[in-house]
Specification:
There is one protein chain. With 514 residues, the protein is of the alpha/beta class. The protein has helices spanning 7-14, 45-60, 80-93, 99-105, 119-136, 153-162, 185-196, 214-224, 255-280, 289-302, 308-314, 393-396, 449-459, 468-478, 504-507; strands spanning 35-40, 68-74, 109-113, 142-146, 173-178, 204-207, 238-246, 315-321, 323-325, 328-330, 348-354, 364-370, 377-384, 404-410, 414-422, 429-437, 465-466, 490-494. It contains 15 helices and 18 strands.
């Protein structure tokens, strides 16, 4: 007779899962091959706030190879020592760094002054990288991270190629760029042509750090690793899907950039479209980069296009007025420093879109994003259809609240499922919620989002990165919305509210009706 304590018996008879054992597949990969990481614009905000802390986290976690170099490149005149001092100050300003970690990281850091529009600077950069590689046994693997304004992308790509730094005969050469990937379809194609005449598609890594957030990656795991969700993840059972990315801050110090782009270009063309694709995607045959990106592209192709007549019914744009946000008086967008007084740039958008395919036909996807909203919150809600018939109608009435699955991405990362249950005592119905806190009970390794995408850059894994066809399809879909809105169709909302009241009709039943 089997032992009553046998784990397999306990799993089958008692419903108790076997104790999990550590699995090598659940550990972050270690980069084996030497690599040189060149950061253009290293003295800027992005490098100090995101990239250096991410690289420090990778080093602290043992994910970096034994031989590696971090080379800062910008127009600022610095030497290696002043560069390291500046980078340590940046790390201290954004959370600090363990002294032992810094002492190990600092010797791997050096600086080269580069003028982005000067071919001679890149020739000198190439010579310096070769000398560094010979001295520190770094080999020929190089990653060029463009932490610079998009206007500098083409100059840097051209000059890298002219200096022979796009050549992969000695090792891989990868070019990493940040959003925005153009300002519209035409400029996205111009950028694509400029990059692809020098670099192949497999060399270009288009970062969207939202995709590296743990709970964003968990969307696919939740759907395709659980038999209870995927069978009902379709038009037969889902009433609607809502995707919210709310920010409580205003434009801060980014007014000159933001006024040129606005909420549609800044949030919808990239972050929101990626979240939509993960919600609507069909299962790829394998979790591999090209297969996953193929399925995302199919979703983008299936988006129902907007006509001019559709916009009034399916899109509401807003701009924040003065108000109170998080208990602090907030100025109107037009009063922000650097914003033109007559600007028609939207800071809020609520959009209803449809994915015209077999799985999702007729199911609306609501996408909402804006600045100066009551709180910082990003979440996806899958609202299921109500029960088709209420056998309890004489007790509770005809209406029974439908189930909702909420995937909270930030600030508190969790998954919750709301359903109906009987209240203790009298015959009453109540809504109850099961919550899963993403980090509860987990003691394994963790990496911030930027560290994960930088690790994937070094490993050559493009799963979490945009592909050019997806970029162009999203720009094409948004094209009818990108011009300056009619002043009569740009609605004001007070800072600290959920957007303009005019969005209420569009969002009725969504749960965030302004």
């Amino acid at each position: 007779m089997a032992d009553a304590q046998d784990p397999a018996l306990a799993e089958v008879v008692l419903g108790r899962p076997k104790n999990p054992t550590p699995d090598a597949a659940c550990r972050f990969d270690h980069v084996e091959e030497p690599v040189t990481f060149v950061i253009f614009g290293v003295t800027g905000d992005l490098a100090g706030r995101m990239l250096l802390p991410a690289l420090a986290a990778l080093y602290a976690g043992g994910n970096m190879p034994e031989n590696f170099a971090i080379v800062g490149a910008s127009r600022t005149e610095l030497n290696d020592d002043t560069f390291r001092e500046r980078m340590r100050a940046a790390l201290e300003a954004f959370g600090g760094v363990d002294p032992e970690i810094w002492d190990g990281l600092a010797p791997h850091m050096s600086y080269i002054r580069v003028h982005y529009d000067d071919p001679a600077s890149f020739t000198a950069l190439g010579a310096a990288l070769d000398a560094l590689a010979a001295e520190q046994h770094l080999g020929g693997n190089r990653i060029f991270y463009l932490a610079v304004p998009p206007t500098a992308y083409e100059d840097i790509a051209v000059n890298l190629a002219m200096a022979g730094l796009a050549d992969e005969t000695r090792g891989h050469a990868r070019l990493v760029i940040e959003k925005p990937f153009g300002r519209d379809l035409a400029t996205a194609r111009v950028l694509e042509q400029a990059l692809h005449t020098r670099f192949s598609e497999h060399q270009i890594f288009r970062i969207d750090h939202y995709l590296a957030k743990e709970t964003v990656q968990n969307i696919l795991m939740l759907r395709f690793a659980n038999a209870i969700f995927e069978p009902i993840w379709n038009r037969r059972y889902v009433d609607y899907v809502s995707i919210l990315a709310a920010e409580s801050i205003g434009v801060e110090h980014r007014a000159s950039y933001y006024d040129h782009f606005g909420v549609l270009r800044d949030m919808f063309q990239n972050h929101m479209m990626q979240l939509l694709s993960l919600c609507a995607i069909e299962p790829p045959s394998l979790f591999e980069a090209e297969l996953v990106r193929d399925e995302k592209t199919k979703v983008f192709r299936a988006l129902r296009p907007f006509s001019a007549a559709d916009l009034a019914e399916n899109l509401v744009l807003g701009q924040y007025a003065s108000g109170v946000c998080a208990g602090i008086k907030a100025p109107a967008y037009l009063d922000e420093e650097g914003v033109p007084g007559e600007s028609l740039t939207p800071t809020f958008a609520a959009m209803k879109v449809y994915v015209d395919n077999w799985r999702w036909q007729g199911v609306p996807f609501y996408m909402i994003s804006g600045k100066r909203l009551p709180e910082k919150r990003t979440e996806i809600a899958v609202q299921f259809k109500p029960v088709p018939f209420s056998m309890f109608r004489e007790i509770f009435g005809d209406h029974i609240k439908a189930n909702r699955l909420t995937l909270r991405i930030q600030p508190d990362e969790q998954v919750s499922l709301t359903f109906q249950a009987k209240a203790p005592g009298p015959m009453c119905l109540r809504s109850v919620t099961m919550n899963f806190n993403y980090y509860q009970g987990y003691e394994g390794p963790q990496l911030p989002a930027y560290a994960k995408v930088l690790l994937d850059c070094m490993l050559g894994d493009q799963t979490l990165f945009w592909r050019q066809d997806g970029v162009e399809l999203c720009w094409k879909f948004l094209a009818p919305m990108l011009g300056d809105p009619d002043p009569g169709r740009l609605f004001l909302y007070k800072a600290g509210t959920w957007g303009p009241q005019e969005a209420g009709k569009l969002l009725t039943g969504h749960g965030l009706t302004p």
